[in-house]
Structure formats: structure tokens, C-alpha cells
Specification:
Length: 200
């Protein structure tokens, strides 16, 4: 990884650590205010050198750090998994309200799923990283989804990146069917939780 990112790797790592710390702050703030923690678990990663170079090539971009940091928006990635669908939207609102995070784009693939059945809420952030004597602009992607959506996405990812799989079309159809069933279950579980809490 350091062959491509070089000395810039520490900037990515610092930005990732800062983002994870702020997400932890959001969780603690919610609990301090007497609300439930909307996050089941959270993890972050820096896009691997091979994946970054492949994406730059696929987009027809010169393989430079500047392009990797500014045009490609997922050099830094954070995946947040929630228990319920409404937690996803609560968290998206809390992220939107963070004063030092500039949101460039939001995509709601829960309200409008992809044709494959993929569901998730994506947020693209623009980050300013200050260092002694200089600052850098980076981009990061946050994906927020339910446990069911995360399990489904893991299977789809495996299908996408594995070669020599038999019955691909059948598997894709089954995944689409499962996505619809899981979405229905997600909403039912949310309704049951609201009934338990006397919200409806």
C-alpha cells in the first residue's frame, strides 16, 4: 500500500482515526442525552493500493495521489451497521448535523434500492485535514445499513468478486428475492420495537 500512497498513508490513517473518534462521540452523545445508541457496530478501512489503482484505471483517470484523494471518494471508507431501519436515518441526521463535516452527496439505496436488491445509505464527506504548515482535502464514504442489509451485501460482494460460479443468474434472482424478504422483515421488526416502546 505504501508504494502508491507513500508518505500520504499517515494522512489517510489520521483522517480515518479522526472519523471513527467522532462517530464514537455521536454514540456517547446519544447515550448522554438519554437516547438509544443507534449503532450496532462500526468499522473503517483505507482502500487498498490495488483497489485504488484499479478504480482509477476503470474511471480513465491518471494514477496520482491527487486523483485518489479528491476525485475518488472512497479512499477512506466507514461501514456502520444498525439494528433497525429507523436507526439508519437517525444516524444519517446526526452525521448531517456534525458542524465540521461537509457532506457532498447522499444516496438512499434503502428508499430506492439498486436493481440487484442492494440497500444501504451512502454519505460522501469532504474532510479538511490540518497539519503543521499545511492542510489537505480528502474525501470519505460512510455506508449505513441494517444487520440484514449488511449480511446480504456480503453475499453479493462474494458473488461479484468470485470467478467460475455456476448458475449466476439463478443466484442473482435468489438474492433479489431475499433482499425484498429481508427488507420486509426489517420493517416488521422496527414496527414490533415501536409497539414494545409504546411509540405506536
Amino acid at each position: 500500500m505504501a508504494d502508491f500512497y507513500g508518505d500520504n498513508l499517515f494522512i489517510l490513517q489520521s483522517a480515518l482515526n479522526e472519523m471513527l473518534a467522532k462517530i464514537d462521540l455521536i454514540r456517547n452523545y446519544q447515550k448522554m442525552k438519554g437516547f438509544r445508541d443507534p449503532i450496532e457496530h462500526c468499522k473503517g478501512r483505507i482502500k487498498s493500493e490495488d483497489s485504488m489503482l484499479e478504480k482509477l484505471q476503470r474511471r480513465g483517470l491518471e494514477k496520482t495521489i491527487e486523483n485518489a484523494f479528491t476525485i475518488i471518494h472512497d479512499a477512506i471508507g466507514i461501514r456502520i451497521v444498525c439494528s433497525f431501519v429507523d436507526d439508519v436515518y437517525v444516524l444519517a441526521k446526526l452525521i448531517r448535523e456534525m458542524p465540521d463535516w461537509e457532506i457532498l452527496e447522499e444516496k438512499d439505496y434503502i428508499a430506492s434500492p439498486k436493481h440487484s436488491g442492494y440497500r444501504s445509505y451512502h454519505i460522501i464527506l469532504c474532510l479538511k485535514i490540518n497539519m503543521p504548515g499545511e492542510s489537505r482535502i480528502l474525501h470519505a464514504e460512510i455506508q449505513i445499513r441494517t444487520i440484514a442489509q449488511d449480511s446480504w451485501a456480503a453475499l453479493e460482494h462474494e458473488l461479484h468478486y468470485k470467478h467460475n460460479i455456476d448458475h449466476v443468474e439463478l443466484i442473482q434472482n435468489e438474492l433479489r428475492r431475499c433482499a425484498d424478504e429481508m427488507a420486509s422483515t426489517d420493517l416488521t421488526l422496527q414496527t414490533v420495537r415501536q409497539m414494545i416502546n409504546g411509540e405506536i
